[in-house]
Amino acid sequence: MLRRQLLAGLTAALLAASAFVAVPAASAEPIKLGLASPGPLADPIKVAVEEAKAQGLEVEVIEFTDWIAPNEALQNGDIDVNYYQHVPFLENASAARGYTFQSLGVGTSSKLGLYSSKHKSFDEIPEGGTVAIANDPVNGGRGLVLLEKAGLIKLTPGLDYKATVADITENPKNLKIVEVVAQQLPRTLADVDLAQGYAHFLKDYGLDPDSALLFDPIQQRFALQWVVKSDSPRIDDVKKFVAIYQSSPAVREAITTRFGDLIVPAW
User: Fold this and answer.
1) For domain 112-217, which CATH number applies: 3.90.640.90, 3.40.190.10, 3.90.950.20, 3.40.50.300?
2) What is the pLDDT of residues 15-25, one digit of tens each?
3) Nearest-5° angle of CA 160, CA 161, CA 165?
4) Alpha carbon 168 to chain centroid distance?
5) For 32-110+221-265, CATH number?
6) CA geometry: angle at 66 spanning 97 and 57, to 5°?
7) Measured in Å, how far apart are the chain's first and last C-alpha atoms?
8) Secondary structure of the chain in the HEC alphabet?
9) pTM listed for this prediction
10) Average pLDDT of 129-137?
11) Sign of CA dihedral 208, 213, 218, 219
């Protein structure tokens, strides 16, 4: 009888102790969020990070200076999510490098234009003039489409943003097309006759973002995406952060305050 009482007491004690250790604590590791060219994106992100922290979700922002490294870091598991690319860019990168990524939601979309610090109209651009466009496949293609809309070149029909310099079929002014890292395009304006540019990058360089000779309308398909690896163990945490970002009035206000209609929420 005494033995049975001792065993029962020991079992009860073990069960009571297990109540404190059976369920492991949630991971304390912060979500690692990669941003490329963070300047135009940083203010709204900071607001969302603070709101997430208040809700018990830690987010660490990691900045990159190019548009290749954030996807490589995501593929290698160095970050949990990146935010800098639209769907056409993502599809092109995935096809080229074999990524298995997915979008968990949409962010903002921005204006793209053709700018000149030397000329006030396309007619003034001289024979043999120099035009700078983005050097990555999708965004460079967008620049070429704008040049066609401006009447400066003609492209092989049907390619849209997939066009490359090799697809120029007519170039009546014999323009020299130079390809430049997209973030650096505003710096070329003093040296070229015309440059493709993202309005928010021009603003960050202290230039007039509304001075484009031609704007490409904001398009939903070029809205930035929250991108993760398809097998990421942090998908639920990232979804929570994206929901905070998208539902926050303070985030929306931060976007509008800094950029007006140059960058707009796309959700």
Assistant:
1) 3.40.190.10
2) 444 333 333 33
3) 95
4) 28
5) 3.40.190.10
6) 90
7) 69
8) CHHHHHHHHHHHHHHHHHHHHCCCCCCCCCEEEEEECCHHHHHHHHHHHHHHHHCCCCEEEEEECCCCHHHHHHHHCCCCEEEEEEHHHHHHHHHHHCCCEEEEEECEEECEEEECCCCCCHHHCCCCCEEEEECCHHHHHHHHHHHHHCCCCEECCCCHHHCCHHHEEECCCCCEEEEECHHHHHHHCCCCCEEEEEHHHHHHCCCCCCCCCEEECCCHHHCEEEEEECCCCCHHHHHHHHHHHHHCHHHHHHHHHHHCCCEEECC
9) 0.85
10) 96
11) negative
- The stretch 231-260 carries a mean pLDDT of 96
Residue type, 170: E
Residue 265 carries which side chain, given as an amino acid letter? P
162, 155 contact by CB (below 8 A): no
Bridge-partner residues for 227, per DSSP? 82, 103
Q: Where in the chain is the domain with CATH 3.40.190.10?
A: 32-110+221-265, 112-217
